[in-house]
Design a protein that fits this description.
Strand order of the largest sheet: 1-2-3-5-4
Structural class: alpha+beta
CATH architecture: 2-Layer Sandwich
Oligomer: single chain
Shape: elongated
Distance between the termini: 47 Å
CATH topology: Yope Regulator, Chain: A
Number of domains: 1
Number of helices: 3
CATH class: Alpha Beta
Radius of gyration: 17 Å
Helix content: 25-40%
Length: about 160
């Protein structure tokens, strides 16, 4: 099976299991899905490296809250605790938009595992969409509070 066929199979399974009918990647290997009318999750196949990238612009980083919001995003990226395994970044627009992104090797994931990854990605994108819609409040950032496995300057905290 080619990389593209593997990507198509993952998307096809996701569509069937989610009741979305027949969805398919375009001839360029892309697909965009609007989630609950709130944000768009993009899927992009890369035939050369056999990956499927999921990405979602989740909101604009407001200038007045930019420092606090960027700190929240960096803390969320640490060990992927506030992103569910994905990575937050900023795009090149001004003011910048926050983008959640995750890449998966098509030949290394089952249909069931990809569906779970997609659902987790959508959940986390929705949480960050809500955080940024509320102005990027540090108190609202998902999964960024210190926990039992959080590293500190003195080593591991229990």
């Amino acid at each position: 099976m080619s990389h593209r066929q593997a990507a198509d199979a993952l998307v096809g399974h996701l569509a069937r299991q989610s009741g979305l009918g027949h969805l398919a990647l375009t001839s360029e290997g892309s697909l965009a899905l609007r989630i609950d009318g709130r944000f768009i999750v993009h899927l992009q196949a890369d035939d050369e490296d056999g990956t499927l990238t999921l990405f979602a612009p989740v909101g604009t980083v407001r200038v007045v809250d930019a420092l606090a919001t960027c700190k929240d995003m960096l803390r969320a990226n640490r060990f992927w605790r506030g992103t569910g395994g994905a990575t937050l970044s900023l795009d090149a627009q001004e003011p910048p938009r926050a983008v959640l992104c995750e890449k998966v090797r098509c030949d290394a994931v089952s249909n069931v595992a990809f569906q779970a990854l997609f659902e987790r990605f959508v959940h986390n994108a929705g949480e960050w969409f809500d955080v940024l819609a509320d102005g990027g409040s540090a108190a609202a950032a998902p999964g960024t509070t210190a926990g039992a496995l959080d590293f500190a300057m003195g080593g591991l905290r229990a």
